[in-house]
Amino acid sequence: MARSNCPHCGLRSQHCRCRREAPASGNANGDDGERAFKLTRTSFCVIFLFFTLLITGLCLSFYLTIVTSLAALGTCHMEVFVDSFSVSNTSTTNANATADWNVSFVAESTGNTCKISLHTIKSSLLRGDKLISESFTTDYFGKLVSGKINESLPYSVFKTVATPDGIGGGVVWDLRVSFVSSFRITGRSRSPGQGFLMVNCGGIPVNFTVDPAGNMKGSLLGHMRPCDYLFRTNYTDASF
Prior knowledge:
This protein is an alpha+beta fold and 240 residues long.
């Protein structure tokens, strides 16, 4: 028997009763675009593993950050600098004129509470590879025995230095100071508390100025200059 459309609803009709035809494809409810998400055992395991790895990674990152910070606080990264350089009045008109050359040093450790003190023992003043003057700590062995060798003495004084040839005003770039110093570290540190440093400070720029009377002064040009050093646990020198 042929089916006809219901005039009031436009649906297929058989025996005067309207009914919807089943869709040709898709689900029985006619809802192809929306399907309910079903949490299976496999998907649950994947989600659980993802969040477990995420939380573990965050905890590990936090732990490593704390450990690294504590290690940095307990270690002194020492840096040595020429802090100042000065030459007292000397004369450019007197060939026999001498002057005192004073060089001070500073040791720093950035980022922590370490405090470092230097005590210079023996120093050499050079221009290029040519020795100009030497300086020694007085009563070195007496201070060593009495424990005063670790008292702060972060400078060298070169007495009655004759003015090197070629210095008569302007900047001299090739001055160098090498020295031996004991050091002591106080504060929070896992580094050795004391020892000796063999320090070399090269390329020190010193600006010399001359007044109308021929008196000359010298001072460090610019800011502090970095030095290289080697660490020693013991130091012996036959000259003392």
